Amino acid sequence: MTNPYLPAITGVDTHAHIFRQDLPMVANRRYSPDYDALIEQYLAHLDQHGLSHGVLIQPSFLGTDNSFMVQALRRFPERLRAVAVVDATVSDQQLDALADVGVVGIRLNLIGKHLADYAGSEWTALFKRLAARGWQVEIQRGFDDLALIVPAILACGVDVVVDHFGLPGEGIDPRKDSHRTFLHLLSEPKLWLKLSAGYRSQTDLAKAQVLLAQIRQAAGGLERLLWGSDWPNTQFERQTSYADQYAFFEALLPDAGERAQVLRLNPAKLFGFDRSR
Q: How many CB atoms neighbour CB 207 within 10 A?
């Protein structure tokens, strides 16, 4: 039910991270920050760009300890939602506790990792539990492998969100079986994709425009596309900024109506910002 007392949705940044450099971090991590990225800084960026809401994504280097993110959700429940990192064996009670503070999904950051059997009983049981809650599964993996992962998760009835243009590297080539298969999957009503962090696949504006045209055609429109700043742009902090990423999005979608679709209407539907928790 829509709540008239919730803040008006002027725009949603669906991908950002917060952390402190002194927090416990997982072993064998690919990255260790040497600075803090605090919720107050993030909300200031939203305010400066006229955005009402944001989605926090648990950083991979913090593992399944979502407590720092949860603290932020408790402080700013009207403006924030979040995507957590959990083990496949997470209990319903743990999921309930996360849901109570505004977590709406889990993330599989699969960069540099061996792919688990996401069609196996342990993971599919979790995905079905998430589907029953109306949650999502967010995936970060290179474009070549998405067709190996996404179908089994979609089959569990859960929404799937693909990060960062799908990390296409050299672009999307429909002549490749794996690329063609994923493009076909984009017509699925529960598959979403973030127009975010093009720099992570060496995607400049010209390349992003080509990607968007391919993705848009395959998806049948813009209705399941999202935008995220990827703040604080870990590992690329010296190459880009929040303002740069927002300007990139504006240039990618110069039509105000299309930007509103991606920035407001789509995330309101997926993340439930137009409803009370």
A: 16
Q: How far apart are the first and last CA of the chain?
A: 10
Nearest-angstrom CA–CA distance, 105 and 107? 7
Structure tokens at 221: 């429109």
Report how far Cα 250 is from the mean position of its chain's Cα atoms. 19
Report the number of distinct structural domains present in the chain: 1
CATH number of 139's domain: 3.20.20.140
Please name the residue that has the structure tokens 């900024």: 241
CA atoms within 13 A on the CB side of 164: 25
CA distance 209 to 6: 34
Mean pLDDT in runs of 10 for the chain (277 residues)? 69 98 93 96 98 97 97 97 97 98 97 89 97 97 96 98 96 96 97 98 96 98 98 96 98 98 96 75
CA–CA separation, 59 and 245 (whole Å): 19
